[in-house]
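Input (structure):
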């Protein structure tokens, strides 16, 4: 696996660190520089297996490799390595969010059992490009008022998120609930790959929260996934509300995101 990884993914601009002893993988870490959605240039580190690695030593090696004193490093830690969270936290990291994995079948079953229906006058529609700016206003507003949000909505990040939405509009995978005045009040966006789907965004206007719209948004997304024979989905969140709802949908953590 590592030989394939070296050949197909690693290049001279990618930091890699791994060790094998007695045919057993002890450590497997790689890092690269990329554009963060909110922070500009960041170092993204993927820790597939940490073993007994001293995190502080690894961080120093990563900074030496990139010839930087930059302190902002994002660490992706698989849930199977959750015992390493304590070591990262003691080294000064903060948990930024959680990647969650769920099944379409259970999601549809659970939401059906809730018996929630769309209010009269409201309807689901595919989003048009002309409505993307309206959706972004909803996104920015709710995240500014959500204490557990990690979003730092500056001009650059808003432009980046808007571009993601335009791409989903083109692929017909961005849906919104429109009220009786024809205004979008909630939306959900999906990014597909060959075997799974990713909930890229979900947001509800603060004026319409508490009416069960989040479950209806998920249900719409699950129905679309089912049409494409997609049975698993993922998503990232840092907000308490989504994490609480994730338990109801039996979405389990598979990756933790931490920042230093």
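Output (sequence):
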């Amino acid at each position: 696996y590592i030989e394939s990884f070296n050949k197909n993914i690693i290049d001279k601009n990618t930091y890699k660190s791994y060790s094998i002893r007695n045919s057993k993988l002890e450590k497997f870490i790689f890092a690269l520089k990329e554009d963060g959605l909110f922070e500009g240039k960041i170092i993204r580190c993927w820790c597939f297996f940490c073993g007994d690695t001293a995190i502080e030593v690894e961080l120093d090696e990563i900074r030496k490799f990139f010839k930087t004193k930059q302190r902002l490093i994002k660490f992706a830690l698989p849930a199977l390595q959750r015992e390493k969270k304590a070591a990262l936290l003691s080294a000064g990291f903060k948990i930024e969010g959680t990647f969650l994995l769920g099944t379409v079948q259970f999601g549809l079953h659970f939401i059906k059992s809730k018996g929630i229906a769309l209010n009269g006058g409201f309807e689901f529609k595919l989003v048009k490009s002309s409505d993307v700016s309206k959706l972004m206003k909803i996104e920015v507003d709710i995240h500014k008022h959500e204490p557990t949000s990690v979003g730092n909505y500056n001009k650059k990040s808003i432009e980046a998120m808007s571009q993601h939405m335009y791409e989903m509009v083109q692929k017909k995978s961005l849906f919104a609930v429109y009220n009786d005045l024809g205004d979008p009040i909630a939306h959900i966006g999906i990014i597909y790959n060959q075997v799974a789907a990713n909930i890229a965004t979900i947001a509800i206007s603060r004026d319409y929260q508490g009416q069960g719209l989040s479950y209806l948004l998920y249900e719409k997304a699950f129905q679309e996934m089912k049409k494409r024979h997609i049975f698993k989905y993922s998503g990232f969140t840092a907000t308490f509300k989504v994490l609480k709802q994730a338990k109801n949908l039996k979405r389990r953590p598979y990756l933790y995101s931490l920042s230093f």
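Notes: The two ends are 29 Å apart (CA to CA). The first helix runs from residue 2 to 8.
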